[in-house]
Every structure is written in C-alpha cells, then in structure tokens.
Amino acid sequence: LNKEESAFRSGSITPDGLIDEDFEKELGPSQVQQDEQEQGEFSDVSRYGIVEIAGDDVYGRKVIIFSACRLPSSKVLDHKRLLAYIKYTLDQYVENDYTVIYFHYGLNSRNKPKLTWLLHTYMEFDRKYKKNLKALYLVHPTNFIRILWTLFKPVLSVKFGQKVMYVNYLHELKEHLHFNQLVVPQPVLDIQRQSGETIPPIVVHTVEYLRKYALDTEGIFRRSASASVIKDVQNKINAGDTVNYAEYDNKHIPAVILKKFLRELPEPILTYDLAEPITRLYGK
Length: 284
Hints:
The chain has helices spanning 3-9, 23-27, 31-41, 43-46, 79-91, 115-124, 127-130, 143-152, 158-162, 186-195, 201-213, 227-238, 252-263, 271-283, and strands at 51-56, 62-67, 98-103, 133-139, 164-167. By secondary structure, the protein is an alpha/beta fold. It folds into two domains: 36-195, CATH 3.40.525.10; 201-282, Phosphatidylinositol 3-kinase, Chain A (Orthogonal Bundle), CATH 1.10.555. Helix 11 (201-213) runs antiparallel to helix 13. The longest helix has 13 residues, at 79-91.
C-alpha cells in the first residue's frame, strides 16, 4: 500500500473526501523536513561554517568550500563528527561532477587535526567520492601542505594527484570559478590584503631569470619551445614545485611560460577599462 492508501484505511482520509487534521503524520515527513532533521543532527559541527556550498564553477560543477580558519580548537570539535558531516555534505553532490576548494590559512597547532585522522579521512573517501571530483584547489598552501603531500604520496592515487592544484592568490580562482559566488572567509581576505603581493612568485622568478640570462637571446619572445617540455614545466608550477630553468638549458622556455601566463589572465594587465583610453593616447 502507498502512503495515501494507508492514510485512507487508517481514517485520516474519510470516505466523503474529508481529511483529518493529523493526515501529515500519516503521510510521513516531507523531504525538506527530513533534510532539516539530518542537518540538525550535525548542528554541533555545521554551526562553525567549516563546510559550505558556493554555487557552480564555470564548468557547471557544484563547488564545495572547506575553510581551515573556521575550525575550532581540537579540544572542542570531535573530528569523527567532522568527518561524518563532511561525508554527509558530499553525499548530496557526488553523483555528479563537483569541485572542492580548501582555504588553508588559519590552520594552526590549536585546531590542526592529527595526521592519523587525515590519513583515515583520505581512506574513507572511496571511489564514490573521488570519481566525480574534478578539481581540488589548495588555496594559500604552506610547507605543511607540501610535507603532507610527501608523506601521503605512497597512498595517493595518480589520478587523485592530477586533480590537485595549488593556488597562491585568490585571483587565480577566477579562471575556473564564479568568484562573486565564493564564500571567502574574512581572515583569508585579510591575509591576502596584508601580504601586499599581487604578482605570483613564479612570475617574479621567471622575469628575474629572463632579465638576468636571456635579454641578449635572439627572438626571446618570438621563438617557441618544445610543447612537451612546456607542459612539464606547467605541471611543476601547478603542483607548487620549484622550477629551475637552468636545468632545461633553453632560455625560450621561461619566455614561453611568461607569455602563456599573460595570455591566460582573465583580464589583461592594462584592464578592459583602460583599453580605450590607452588606444586613444597611442593614436595621438
């Protein structure tokens, strides 16, 4: 019997079509009520805002944000409950492609989970969670992240590693995400402003190398380089590795990397707003 038939036979729906006041009890809780009940079960964790949903990225994939700065003291938060809540949140979206953003700033000795918990968490996320994860952005990574990567590398799958991208500056996210939809914690915004750095370190490193070793190289910004080598260098940059251009013995490689960076900016250096005034000035 379906719920309506059950309700009729129990007397909630009378033969003349009248409905008793308690018919909702017979039909059972609605989906919204069930979601509210489940959410309420994790109110001890959800109230911190550690995990949030931020619309879709530019590819139409759901964006899930994890903010380390919102982790309370480990003495207050039950990390087993945190893991359960993370899985509960992901379970609502993993059937389709999705993206995760991890804001690392704010993780400290007071709120940092144990390494055993981190390893256990990774093992808990089986193929169901990893299959449709298309990108994991690690924002403002520190040496702690790179040490973790080295420690866990033996147990991390190659496919999973290819989905991880290091992001040193918030503006780098604009290429892949609708930035106005992001729920960026205020401490993360503050530290970005305080740093005063607007040029990515790899760009500074590349320009310094070119200035020091390549200014006299003929066709430095005209000639290209091996596509496979350029891809290899880009992969190292995206993984947060140090790039030693001297190892490649080809001064055109850093020049190509710089050109690709400038071409792929979401907005030109001189900005669209200044394009017309600059064009008029140049025309004069």
